[in-house]
């Protein structure tokens, strides 16, 4: 059986300039703090970041934005992080704003291998700019394309040594979807438990989707 446990130093081997990274979390809740700190310390740059929001300047993915490491953000909300807005307005960073349900479905499509989906959300607004419009049964839809990433960094509550994951309350948010839609997936659980300790019915993300588990301090 492949041993998936790695330490933070080993995780940094998967970081490189110009990559696209999905990071879970909502307002910082459910974001993987140790992996984000390692990404920041690695000095990689020109990142494309796919995340539901940019949290706060000093929370979640906020420090990545504030450090100037991100060239583009694809998110549904940036209002709580003034640095994101400042960099967008100044032209230092590109921001693609996506309605939150559309963002979730684009990621799901990327994970499911679908070519995209049709949605009426955004029709008649700036959201439709540059997108193909399709009319079905007298209703206009936008064709939204799937999102995938080179790497997904996700936060879990528990993991077993195979990588079966559970999540805690609202910290679940985008993490399970992102685990489906990246070439490499690294999970940061709060604790790692023995195989069989997690009831199968409680597994949200199966081990087959997880490439590596960042070893919590207690398991080192």
Automatic annotation (TrEMBL):
PROSITE patterns: COA_TRANSF_1. Keywords: Transferase. Gene3D superfamilies: Glutaconate Coenzyme A-transferase. GO terms for molecular function: butyrate-acetoacetate CoA-transferase activity. Pfam families: CoA_trans. SUPFAM superfamilies: NagB/RpiA/CoA transferase-like. Its EC number is 2.8.3.9. Belongs to the 3-oxoacid CoA-transferase subunit A family. This is Acetate CoA-transferase subunit alpha. It comes from Serratia aquatilis. The lineage of its organism: Bacteria, Pseudomonadati, Pseudomonadota, Gammaproteobacteria, Enterobacterales. The gene is atoD.
